[in-house]
Design a protein that fits this description.
heterodimer; A: about 90 residues; alpha+beta; four-stranded antiparallel β-sheet; B: about 575 residues; alpha/beta; eight-stranded mixed β-sheet; 22 helices
């Protein structure tokens, strides 16, 4: 499993549109994608291909998440998803 | 049958008489938990319901994109993604397969669970998404249900729509040629439904409360969108008197329609420009036929409201361009984002304020979040080559704000030039005068700006320190207050001295009673709701400017709003409407 930590940069956090972009991108890869949030000692993990899962994490600007990918195209998936988050989902 | 009279809030003017269509869709909440002995069949039913929902949503999205724009469709697209979500359907199928629940029960459980997750979140925007999840649940439920509620798509003839409330997803399905009016249980003057009714010209009475239950499907009803009255099964007398009123309105409309094509020139040759206030691209269509000579105020806020995130430059550009093209080269004054105060954008996550109207709003917010204004200015500039676009900045209180806004405008221009994008040669830049400090500084501003637009709604509020929504003091809110009139004079005089023009886009501009005074003060451009255009034009063309100047001079000496009003009423010609 490959992992990378990224910070949410866009103003609105994981609202509908960013969550949609993320899940669409995630679904374009074979690999499993997980998004993990570390809160205090607890980790919450959701399916990176689930828009509902991502939205219910309640991520806002400044939240740090771990993206984990596993599968045949894990590396490409991890790169694509981290750069999508880092680009702020194209929001101004 | 006995006549029943109900009282609600009149939010969109007009009298309508017609048959009630009670919109009562089947809702997810009305179900009982039930087990099944044929899980395979239940799963199959669920899958079919899902497929039909997907088709239904797809059709709605196509309609929303073409009528309301790409941005409005985002929420519906979100709903489609819910349907495909791994945490949505698979758990439902599991509940049926393992626990033997019916498809309805499984939908209910999962939807309630996910909506509950959203409802428990700290962020208000995310809490509101619970409604989207429930909306998808309701769609599925309607597909599964053997019971049939009434759906908007069942409307076949002209009706008055009676509903608890209308959601944005309901309103994209409305056929406005069939819906004569709205009556709702909940909703106020600023609700989504009120704004929609106004912009479509549909009469509406909202907020009837439980009294709405007195209306049955198919009842004959009369609604008065001005007074908020609603009659169920009206008596012959009531019906006759409203029919008469309808005829009078129609006769007046015909009489006034003759003014649409005329120029707004007084009997002694003083020409003014009458323009319209709009909020959406749709409102720009057909304006020229109503007698508008352009758009004096394009409120861009609606483009930003009801969205999940900031509309990007392309979306904004498309909207501004469509408006500029709709009026065929006539001027369009685009006001930059005027948000804050009572208008919220959830995705901006603005802090709660003690005094929002004196707080972080309009140009203040835009100068603080520069990217936001820069993006909007770029979009406006790009649209400028498709018509005659002018830009104005709201809520300017001092020179510094104007200069900062101006330099951002220059920056946007520079950027576009460097990118090789076309921009109109000259674009007039103006400021809104809605704060007394700006009105008093008008002589200084007039040396730097191309025009003023007086927003009387806020100018009155700030001059006499009255919150017009506060019932206790609302009677003090009056644009005929002598202080307001003197400020208006200061602004127009300053613009005359420096050879620029002054417009007005607050509600005073659309009041026929105020017209002689504004003519006398020398106002150049008047912008109002499209429905007031011909009425004001009739007053203007019936007047002599010289008489209005004398009237204005007298009024400027007056001490109270009551005296001003009296003088204007006495001046009004008996023939005026």
């Amino acid at each position: 499993m490959l992992t990378k930590d990224v910070t949410i940069r866009n103003e609105s956090g994981f609202h509908i549109r960013p969550a949609q972009l993320f899940t669409e991108k995630a679904a374009s890869f074979q690999s499993d994608v997980k998004v993990i949030v570390h809160k205090d000692a607890d980790n919450t993990e959701v399916d990176g291909k689930s828009i509902l899962g991502l939205m219910t994490l309640g991520l806002e600007k400044g939240s740090v998440i771990t993206i984990a990918t596993e599968g045949s195209d894990a590396e490409a998936a991890l790169d694509a998803l981290t750069s999508l988050v880092e680009s702020g989902f194209g929001e101004a | 049958m006995e006549e029943k009279q109900l009282q609600g809030l009149g939010v969109s003017a007009g009298i309508r008489i017609g048959k009630a269509f009670v919109y009562a869709p089947v809702r997810l909440t009305d179900i009982e938990k039930k087990k099944t002995d044929d899980p395979t069949r239940e799963i199959e039913r669920l899958r079919q319901a899902k497929a039909r929902c997907q088709e239904e949503l797809q059709a709605l999205i196509e309609r929303a994109v073409s009528t309301l724009g790409e941005e409005k469709a985002v929420i519906l697209k979100g709903q489609i993604s819910f349907l495909q979500d791994p945490t949505f359907f698979p758990p439902m199928e599991k509940l049926i397969e393992k626990d033997g629940w019916t498809a309805e029960t499984a939908v209910h459980q999962i939807v309630t669970q996910i909506a509950g997750l959203f409802e428990g979140m700290a962020n208000e925007y995310m809490r509101e998404r619970a409604a989207d999840v429930r909306d998808v649940g309701n769609r599925l439920f309607a597909q599964l249900s053997e019971r049939k509620g009434t759906e908007l798509s069942d409307i076949r003839e002209q009706v008055i729509l009676v509903a608890d409330d209308l959601t944005p997803s309901d309103t994209v399905q409305l056929d406005k040629n069939k819906v004569l009016g709205f009556v709702t249980r909940i909703g106020g003057k600023t609700s989504h439904t009120a704004i929609l009714a106004n912009s479509l010209g549909i009469a509406a009475v909202l907020g009837l409360g439980d009294a709405v239950d007195a209306i049955r499907h198919g009842d004959e009803i009369v609604i008065d969108g001005t007074t908020g009255r609603c009659f169920v099964n009206p008596s012959e007398g009531t019906k006759a008197s409203y029919l008469q009123q309808l005829e009078r309105e129609e006769a007046e409309r015909v009489e006034l329609a003759a003014y649409a094509a005329r120029e707004a020139v007084t009997k002694d040759g003083f020409r003014v420009e009458l323009a319209a206030n709009i909020g959406t691209v749709e409102e720009a269509q057909g304006l020229l036929e109503l007698g508008a000579e352009g758009i004096g105020l394009y409120r861009t806020e609606f483009l930003f409201m009801g969205q999940s995130s900031m509309p990007d430059e392309e979306t904004q550009f498309a909207a501004y361009r469509a408006v500029a093209e709709a009026v065929q080269g006539k001027p369009v004054v685009i006001r930059t984002l005027d948000i804050g105060g009572d208008k919220e954008l959830p995705y901006l996550e603005l802090p709660k304020e003690m005094n929002p109207f004196l707080g972080y709003r309009a140009i203040r917010l835009c100068l603080d979040r520069k990217e936001l204004l820069l993006t909007q200015l770029r979009a406006i500039l790009r649209a400028s080559v498709y018509g005659t676009v002018k830009i104005m900045f709201p809520m300017i209180s001092g020179m510094d704000e104007w200069r900062q806004a101006h330099s951002l405008y220059e920056e946007a221009r520079e950027q576009l030039r460097a990118e090789g994008k076309a921009v109109a040669e000259t674009i007039e830049l103006g400021i809104m005068i809605e704060i007394p400090s700006a009105a008093l500084m008008a002589p200084s501003f007039a040396k730097e700006v191309d025009f003023f637009s007086i927003g009387t709604n806020d100018l009155v509020q700030y001059t006499v320190a009255v919150d017009r929504m506060n019932e206790k003091v609302a009677h003090l809110y009056d644009y005929f207050h002598p202080a307001v009139i003197r400020l208006i004079k200061t602004v127009i005089d300053a613009s005359n001295k420096y050879g620029i023009w002054t417009g007005m886009c607050g509600s005073m501009a659309g009041d026929p009673l105020a017209a002689p005074l504004l003519l006398g003060l020398g106002l150049h451009e008047w912008s109002m709701s499209a429905s007031s255009l011909t009425r004001v034009k009739k007053v203007v063309t019936d007047m002599k400017r010289s008489e209005c100047v004398a009237l204005a001079e007298r009024i400027l000496e007056m001490d109270t709003a009551a005296e001003v009003r009296q003088a204007l009423e006495a001046f009004r010609r008996p023939v005026s409407v």
